[in-house]
Design brief:
about 190 residues; 9 helices; elongated
């Protein structure tokens, strides 16, 4: 089914955030990537750019659930593998041009409302990962802490991999996270 103009704009904004950050996700760029008419801007986003960016990171946040759901019932090591595979895929598909759109907003948007939105998305990812890790046998405190570590380490590894234009930093972090995840099983 074809996406609506609004849906195309939101998806395009998410991709531009992941590749170019908040400043690189201008209305002009979004319209170009989405192949949307100029009149679409204030028709779909009457409150301006921050409304579009909020929708884009909400979209990014919602896309994580279907990626994480198949990890239910897996071991902690398999959860790490699945989560890191998602980032590896993003890096490879984009030629090391894309990272996390939520992180991009966190570090470059000046809006307290967008920062709060990003915080809530990261919290939802952390909560879902912690839930998966508890199901894998980790104690509550360990699951919460390891979920936070998994997000922070993977986000940093993605940044380093983009800077180096290679997977080596992501793979190094992945190996260490696997070791730590495996230590919980013992």
């Amino acid at each position: 089914m074809a996406k609506s103009v609004r849906e195309r704009m939101v998806a395009s904004a998410m991709l531009l955030l992941a590749e170019r950050g908040y400043q690189g996700a201008s209305f002009t760029e979004v319209l170009t990537v989405a192949r949307a008419p100029r009149g679409s801007i204030y028709h779909h986003f009457p409150d301006g750019k921050d409304e579009l960016i909020a929708a884009a990171i909400d979209y990014a946040g919602a896309r994580a659930a279907p990626i994480l759901d198949p990890l239910s019932g897996r071991s902690a090591v398999e959860i790490v593998d699945g989560f890191m595979a998602m980032w590896r895929s993003i890096l490879e598909r984009s030629g090391f041009q894309a990272g996390c759109s939520v992180l991009a907003v966190t570090v470059s948007a000046g809006s307290p409302a967008l920062l709060e939105r990003a915080r809530d998305i990261f919290r939802s990812w952390q909560a879902r990962l912690a839930e998966l890790l508890r199901t894998a046998g980790l104690a509550d405190d360990d699951a919460d802490a390891f979920a936070t570590l998994l997000i922070a380490a993977s986000e940093g590894a993605v940044v380093l991999a983009r800077a180096e234009q290679q997977l080596a930093p992501l793979e190094a972090v992945h190996r260490q996270l696997r070791v730590l995840a495996g230590s919980y099983a013992g």
